[in-house]
Amino acid sequence: MSEVLQNPPFSFRYDGVPSSTLLPAWTKTTATANQPDGRTRRTITWTAPDGLEVRWIGDEYPGFTTLSWTVYFTHKGTAQSKQLSDVLAMDVSVTSMPDTDWVLRTALGSSQTKNDFTPIDLPLPVSAYRVFSTAGGRPTDGRFMKPPAAGDWSYLTGPAGAPGYLQQDQHSTAAAGATARFIFSGTSVSWIGPKNVDCGIAAVWIDGVKVGTVDLYAGSWLKQQTLFTSAQLPEATHVLEIVATGRKNANATGTIIAVDGFTFQATGGVTVNDPLSDITYNTNAQGNSLWEFATEDEHSSFFQDSQHYYQDNQHRSTVAGAEASWTFTGNSVTWVGPKNLDCGIADVYLDGVKVATVDLYATTWLKQQTLWTSGALTSGQHTLRVVNTGTKNASAIGTFVTIDAFIYTSSLPVTVDDTAAAITYAGAWNANPSGGSQGYINSTQHSSSAASASATLTFQGTGITWVTARNVDCGIADVFLDNVKVATVDLYATTWLKQQDVWTSATLSNTTHTLKIVNTGTKNAAGSGTVVPIDAFRYSTAGVVTTYNDTDGAIEYLSAPNSRTAVANGWPFWNLDMVGCGLICALGWPGQWGAQVQRTSPTEVRWTGGMVSKDGDELQHGQQLAAMDLADLWLAPNEAIRTALIVMQPWNGGTAAAAQNQWRRWMLQYHVPRAANSTGPAQPLAPTQANDYFPGQHDTAQDEIAWMNSYGSQQTTQGTGGVQDWWWIDAGWYQNSPNAPTDTWEWTGTWTPDPTRFPHGLKPVTDRARQLGMKSIIWYEPERVMPGTFIHNNYLSYTLEDVPDAQQIPYKRQWGGVARLFNFGDPAALSWASGYFNNSINTQGVDLYREDFNINPLPFWNKADPAGRRGITQARYVDGHLAFWTALQAAHPGMLIDTCASGGRRLDILTLGQSINLLRSDTIRQATANQAHLAGLTPWVPLHGGAVRAIAQYDDDYNLRSGMGPVFHLAVAALEPTVPWNTVRASLAEWAAIKQYYLQDFHLLTPHSVSDDRWMVWQFGTAAAGFLQAFRRPSSGAAAQVVQLRGLTGTRTYRLTDTRTGMVWTTTGSALAAGLRLTLPNPTLASTITYQGL
Predict the structure, then answer these.
(1) In the predicted model, is pLDDT for residue 1041 greater than 60?
(2) 414-436, pLDDT tens digit by residue?
(3) Distance separating alpha carbons of residues 75 and 633, to the nearest angstrom
(4) Residue 419 located in a structural domain
(5) Which helix (H) or strand (E) holds 888?
(6) Which of 898, 908, 902, 965 lies closest to 933 in space, CA to CA?
(7) Using an 8 Å Cβ cutoff, are 1073 and 1050 in contact?
(8) Phi and psi of 309, rounded to 5°?
(9) Do residues 241 and 314 both lie within one domain?
(10) Which of 269, 455, 558, 1087 could be disulfide-bonded to 179 (CB atoms 3.0-4.6 Å)?
(11) H or E segment to which residue 451 belongs
């Protein structure tokens, strides 16, 4: 970071003069000191002639490239200061960067949706800039973020626009950064498009990694060209991105890139969404569609109707004769849709023959159901038709027929049974031993105890798996592929496990291969024999080529940076990926912030940012950061303010994903709050609580104690031999106001327990929790003050008022206009609150202070600013609120603070230096959302949590694994007789065995997605040990997924244990890096697989 330190990495104006002019002329002092944790602190102070002191405090960290800093302004003059304006906590230009295709990687903040923390990748071509902000004054509020439009893409069709193209159409663009994104499941992909004299250069990315650059220049117009073909890919879901670079060949006359289509090898189930252009929906004689299209969109009249459908949309019809027709190439097909009270009966035709009549009636609304499936078909082209009969079940109230999606396969794995002639056995083998083959494939097996006995199969395909049994009498076998030894497999198990996938090779070239299994004659020390059985082999074929035209719904067209400069994503973290090197940056300001990243030249980037006073949705396209109302104020004598905390961490070598783990290590070593009585970071937590997330205002002290006693009696709490170590009392425990609606937690401002429900306060509850081995987490919300409450009635002068209704933008009006904001920027209010809440913590026996923040403070701050002092209220408030937390922690050393703001809307880097996060989003208890939230947030924030419940349903294991994380918040209806306590105990034990790895490296092994038709797989750990978790979501048609583990030692042997199946096996790091085939036979299954280096 030497370049950053050459010049002050911040800027401002004083009396209208820029700091770059002023600071060299002011008095300057410097100091350097080593801090107790090993960091080096540099302090540079400039003093103006009138007494304004500007102090920059920067920290460098041994073992890391990280530099963090904050700027403090203090006026030590005797009169009012001059005007301090345009204050930028960060104003840094970094030069000598590589001239490559830059991508700015960030994410979406929290907005109470499953999309919270979804990664956002923004190309940053030369001269482009992006301005980022948040909503309402909470730093990680992403509710104003809108998806990029496709405005930079032109759709051309017909003989004039696309002659000789696929289906005579194309999408094209000349805008640098414009992106075409294609999500597919398969083992290879190709991009089809034209070349011409006016075509430019495109970058190609697969799964977030740049894999090629394609020059589309040609001396004549060439059409339907294969512009790019991937290398062999693992059998999985992948994301292909084609990005216009804005560059061209020296001979070219333009920078156009075009998408005509994509072709991919589909080896598993491919889900086709209902809007796909190849699906035909018929019309009436007037040309009007007989089908309605409904989507989960705020402007759709069917908003509620399409929630939780595949990709949140559907086509539906009640009209007799309404028909959906689709032609595909494959060997099986499935129709997916809903059942309900108002659904009718449909006929299904395949290749012109009626094959089924399907009654869609159900007593409850069932979504993403498999309504009909074909079974195995002859591989080739087929036409599926679904026709509404206009009839219904006698119990139904309507005749709706809905198309949600189709799933088809274009190849199925080929299973070769042990009896097949294709397998050659050498040595002594026992074929189908009597009584020993029940539960095997086709109830047959071959087995041998003889050293050197071998089984050999020659096949053509792209992957192969050995399927066999494990048992106490099984030995050890060597695996040879194409005459090279690739693995040694120990078949020992304590129980008889059948049809096990014991070894897989998933990324083979599509040629002929030979697999050979050889009995070594050796065994595990615990084993009782050397039996090596052969049940079957299963290999994957290359599959049938599938082509998607450029108009198909699987292809998304995204705008270029210059078409969308304003990004109110509510996430002040960035990783600028310059291919092989980059720069991570975080801006920490628990208020309203703005930031701008601009590529000022091919090799230079400028970062600016700090506190602003304009809401994120008010920034217009084309405006720069200066339009967001930077600070413009004066200081009174001895008055001081601070800027945002800035953290920069450059990286060189490797990938952006690898750099995120270096960021996590820095966070854990230096920034995450320290655990009580420890110099290390706060550790993973396993809280539980009352019957549900909001017990409301019905629970009593007796209820709380009865619930926790139930946990204790079932030995799930730490003091009873279990794991759960925190008891969580959320909103609603306090005395209500006479002004409040009945039974609501929302009327905050009185922080004494309800005397009826808790006559002795919370202390008897928290004391009992400690007896059971659980500390207490208690919910507070000190900042929002409602009418009639204690603070409102007695300390109204300590609060700020909202903008009058007449001046309100309707969609920004909050709490009926009656809420007030406690003013932590007032020193008297701060002093009173510190004493009041410290006393509450002591009196109620609070061990962890959980603070929520369900109000947007920005309008309160702006209204309170005096004339000529824009931003002063916000600056004082932010500093005062941080001082409030410091006072609480000083009075209670080692006490953790939980930052909650309607979920995860206050997760900036400054806040995270004093707090952890127990509930990252108010979208809770949903498996897909829990998975997506963990996958998106973990690269940036090491310690966070969601919420999950065990409710004695078939998918409890899936949901509980989806809810695991650094904070495993698992609760049940504790007094109900149906509580699945065995499942709860097993899940807690599984989490306890892996919890240490949550604070180590994280690798997302499949693309991030919120769709229910995908797998999601991640890995936590180091080269020595760790785990991965795999989730097959409810609509996924793929029973297997291949992933490539990361960060392992290639020559090291690892022992893997699947907690779902009990399967244990060994393999090498290089084999795991090449591809591990995971199998989950049904949707809504999940598995935790640990690995341990030997």
Answers:
(1) yes
(2) 788 999 888 999 999 998 765 56
(3) 12
(4) yes
(5) helix 872-891
(6) 965
(7) yes
(8) -85, 170
(9) no
(10) 558
(11) none
pLDDT-based confidence at residue 299 (cuts at 50, 70, 90):
very low
Q: Residue 540: what pLDDT?
A: 77
pLDDT of residue 692: 56
What pLDDT sits at residue 284?
82
Q: Helix or strand or coil: residue 671?
A: helix
Q: Domain total for the chain?
A: 5
CATH number assigned to the domain comprising residue 810? 3.20.20.70
Maximum C-alpha span of the chain: 101
pLDDT higher than 90, residue 460: no
Which of 984, 999, 1014 is where one domain is finished? 999
CA 624, CA 586: separation in Å to the nearest integer? 19
Residue 796: per-residue pLDDT: 98
What confidence tier does 562 reach under pLDDT thresholds 50, 70, 90? very low
Show the tokens assigned to 802: 């909202």
pLDDT at residue 228, as a whole number: 95
Q: Say if residue 901 is in the same domain as residue 879.
A: yes
Q: Stretch 453-458: mean pLDDT, rounded?
A: 96
Task: Tell me how far apart the alpha carbons of residues 582 and 245 are, in angstroms, rounded to a whole number.
Answer: 18
Only one residue has tokens 């996590």, namely 664
- Is 1073:1060 a contact under the CB 8 Å cutoff? no
Residue written as token pair 């070349």: 195
484 shares its domain with 536: yes
What are 43's strand-pairing partners?
31, 57
Q: How far apart are CA 240 and CA 208, in angstroms?
A: 8
**Domain identity same for 870 and 925:** yes
Q: Which residues pair with 630 in a beta bridge?
A: 612
Domain-located, residue 1050 = yes
CATH number, domain with residue 331: 2.60.120.260
Instruction: Quote the mean pLDDT of the chain.
Output: 90
- Across 594-603, 689-698, 709-718, 979-988, least confident range: 689-698
Task: Out of 541, 566, 598, pick the residue that ends a domain.
Answer: 541
DSSP string covering 580-624: SEEEEEEEE-SS-EEEEEEEEETTEEEEEEEEBSS-GGGPPTT--
**The pTM is what?**
0.79
Burial per residue of 400-438, b for 16 or more beta-carbon CB atoms within 10 angstroms, e otherwise:
bbbbbbbbbbbbbbeebbbeeeebebeeebbeeeeebbe
Place of tokens 């690269």: 939
Angle (CA) 133-137-142 rounded to 5° is 50
Tell me the C-alpha distance between 910 and 882, whole Å. 9
Burial of 204 (0-12, 13-18, 19+ CB in 10 A): buried
pLDDT attached to residue 301: 33
Q: Put residue 558 in one of left, alpha, beta given phi > 0 → left and psi -120 to 50 → alpha.
A: beta
| Mean pLDDT of the 155-175 span | 86
pLDDT for residue 858 is more than 60:
yes
Give a yes or no: residue 949 inside a domain: yes
Domain of 698 in residue numbering reads as 672-999
Q: Judging by beta carbons within 10 Å of its beta carbon (0-12, 13-18, 19+), is residue 751 exposed, middle or buried? A: buried
Burial class (CB in 10 A: 0-12, 13-18, 19+), 451: middle
Rounded distance between C-alpha atoms, residue 128 and residue 724, angstroms? 50
- Is residue 50 in a domain? no
701 and 850 fall within a common domain: yes
Query: Who wins on pLDDT, 282 or 957?
Result: 957
Give, as one character, the DSSP assignment of residue 670.
Answer: I
> Are 376 and 448 members of one domain?
no
Residue 226: closest CA among 265, 193, 180: 193
302 shares its domain with 313: yes
Per-residue model confidence (pLDDT) at position 529:
96
Token look-up 């794995």 returns 413
Tally of CB atoms within 10 A around 482: 14
CB 974 within 8 A of CB 707: yes
User: Residue 101: how many CB atoms within 10 A of its CB?
Assistant: 25
